[in-house]
């Protein structure tokens, strides 16, 4: 696998913090000072011209980090307003010590009264990693005022209001420009609703030794565009098409032929040796004209599908399949063919109606389809994307690619992987059809199902980012990814 970045739950990071204090002999206040110092250094580097700084402090150690930053900023000549969140006076000794040092340096603490001072930048030090409920009504008002100021925000550890384990936002949340995560990266900051609140996420180890992932096994892993080359080695000079697999794409009910065409072309652009399409007779001529490289067959029943299944090494079922008798018969034939499978779109909707395990298959649901597969609602899936992906993987004994902001890939017995790429422009019809073709292509080229899913989701998201850089996110089409897929599938 690639050199992935480790992610952790809040309880794991708190254990690292305790180890630093109890085993390595670093006083708690020293760690707090390091956190505040790192945050102040980042603020100066990010916004070098600011002279007026607001710091919103809560009652925990997160607030203590804020007091340290406030003192350092004041000592550097900035005008600093510290606003105490309602009920936010420090409850623990390290934070009390930080508050005393701030006051000893001549600083004042203002109680939030519904109004905020005019500043150039805000520092969010209200809540830390332990929050899993909505903020209190009084704190909600403070957060809303910070957001309404339209000033950039530096969040310390996590934006207040984010569940750092699940990525959900149960209430109001600080909208930060930059989040500085201390000691280790928190898994929830990279997926779901948290992606809207965190801005750019950075991590500072606070001078602690590098994490030994053997001693501290991560709860999840993050992959980024720089990891692609780990899965996409150059081909040898004597390569031939038979070495690179044969993907059969099944779908394209009447009126939906474009979906299966996107899937087949994505497989070809990602490097599969052969791509075939099984579709309705009405769609054959258009698909042959649009993409002659895909071997297109009119298939009206499962009997006609059998010889195509026999020749394929990987089968991608679902793009434009429909949920009628035709689609059901082709899905059932595919499930019984003993081939590597990628199931998407209507194949997943049909599977949800008649749930059966599909060992070793790859499922690629967005949150809505994931909810149908789990017999719950979409809000429950989005409230805990890691948990939903895990339940899907266990229920269907499959690799699951839970799509969305911070796509999560899960499988039985594997740590989940978060895809650190992609953009809102990719939220358009047909993007999932392209993803299915990409994953199927990598499967056919020899990657195991989990690795093909991680690499395919990353390649797809990175191609989407590259396409968005050309003309922007809004109006991005699935077919806009094709030239970038080809380029990125051939890393230098």
Description:
The chain has about 500 residues and is an alpha/beta fold. The protein folds into two domains: about 10-220, YjeF N-terminal domain (Rossmann fold, 3-Layer(aba) Sandwich), CATH 3.40.50.10260; about 225-490, UDP-N-acetylmuramoyl-L-alanine:D-glutamate ligase, CATH 3.40.1190.20. About 40% of the residues lie in helices and about 15% in strands. The chain has 17 helices and 18 strands. It has helices at about 10-20, 30-45, 60-75, 95-105, 135-150, 195-200, 255-270, 285-290, 300-310, 325-335, 345-355, 365-375, 380-385, 385-395, 430-445, 450-470, 480-490; strands at about 5, 50-55, 80-85, 110, 120-125, 155, 180, 200-205, 220-225, 245-250, 275-280, 295-300, 315, 340-345, 360-365, 400, 410, 415-420. The strands form two sheets. It has an eleven-stranded mixed beta sheet with strand order 1-9-18-17-16-15-14-13-10-11-12, with helices on both faces. Strands 4-3-2-5-6-7-8 form a seven-stranded parallel beta sheet, covered by helices on one side. β11 (about 275-280), α8 (about 285-290) and β12 (about 295-300) form a beta-alpha-beta unit. It starts with a strand and ends with a helix.
